[in-house]
Amino acid sequence: MQVVVYGNQYKSKDQPYIQAVFNALWQEGITAFVYTPYLEELDGQVDFPGPYAPFDGYADFRAHRIDFVIVLGGDGTMLHAVTLVRDSGAPMLGINLGRMGFLNNIEKIFIAESITKLRRGQYTIGERSMIYLESSHRLFGETPFALNDFTLLKRDTSSMITIHTYLNGDYLNSYWADGIVVATPTGSTGYSLSCGGPIIFPGSGNFVITPVAPHNLNVRPVVISDESVLSFEIEGRGDNFICSLDSRFELITAAHQIAVRRNDFNIRLVQLLDVTFLKTIREKLAWGKDIRN
């Protein structure tokens, strides 16, 4: 078995857990490739008990037979890893070194146990749909897609913006707001949720459109089929607006013609047999717990 270990940034407080990952990989006889920028940060900080090699980027998936990508960090790290994995089909296992951990849902104390389960095949693979951005001006290079969400947001002034929104070419609404979020089921527990959007289960085949601080109080989140195409026209007092895909952003103007649809390929996430979506949201959102005392 061969895996890629991916991380964004080395933090000294995480050293024992990163070391535990490489120790467990060696004990299970798993060959480790390490994302090159991360490997440079780990140099001198972590001991590699077994064989390892650098992994430079997306093109290396063609050169090596990679079974899994192990992502070390928070949910934001998983979102960055999506731009590395792309359509390679390599399933990703997230180990939570951050805070919330909806995507990276393996907690630090279960590192060795989780890698053992991975080696023994005690897991399922979940398909997660993504969102794809089309624009009249090229945006986001080779990765105009997102696992969580797409947003349009104000930038230059404190004044709200107007986002004219069309569903399959038909006029839907004009949102007078600080912005708008279009989330996948995976992203429904992120920015959209904090703006009052609903939780959508993976595999539901939906997008949720959630306004950010809307001026009209009767404007509420809307759930639509992910077979739909949404297009947008933006107005505002400022010259620039923020367009984001997950944690990446670019500046756009009113001249940009923007549309989003379902991406052509999915991302595959490893789900250990005892770590389900229901269990994750119950624990992260403290459902079913009486916290009054």
Characterize the largest beta sheet: strand count, sense, and whether it forms a barrel.
Answer: 6 strands, antiparallel
N to C succession of SSEs: EHEHEHEHEHEEEEEEEHEEEEEEEH
Using the coordinates shown, work out and report the CATH topology of the largest domain. Rossmann fold
How many E strands?
Answer: 19
Approximate helicity band: 10-25%
Name the beta content range: 25-35%
Going by CATH, the architecture of the largest domain would be: 3-Layer(aba) Sandwich
CATH-defined superfamily of the largest domain? Probable inorganic polyphosphate/atp-NAD kinase, domain 1
Give the C-level CATH assignment of the largest domain: Alpha Beta
Count of the separate structural domains: 2
Structural class: alpha+beta
- Order of strands across the widest beta sheet? 8-7-18-15-10-11
Shape: globular
Please give the alpha-carbon distance between the first and last residues: 48 Å
Describe the structure.
The strands form four sheets. The protein has a six-stranded antiparallel β-sheet. The chain has a six-stranded antiparallel β-sheet with strand order 14-13-12-9-16-17, with no helix packed on it. A five-stranded parallel β-sheet has the order 3-2-1-4-5, sandwiched between helices. It is globular, with a radius of gyration of 20 Å. The chain has helices at residues 15-27, 36-42, 60-63, 75-85, 111-120, 191-194, 277-284; strands spanning 2-7, 31-35, 52-55, 68-73, 92-96, 123-128, 131-135, 145-146, 149-153, 161-167, 170-177, 179-183, 206-212, 222-225, 230-235, 241-245, 248-252, 258-262, 267-272. The protein is built from seven helices and 19 strands. The longest helix is centred in the first third of the chain and has 13 residues, at 15-27. The protein has two domains: 2-129 and 266-284, Probable inorganic polyphosphate/atp-NAD kinase, domain 1 (Rossmann fold), CATH 3.40.50.10330; 131-262, Probable inorganic polyphosphate/atp-NAD kinase, domain 2 (Tumour Suppressor Smad4, Sandwich).
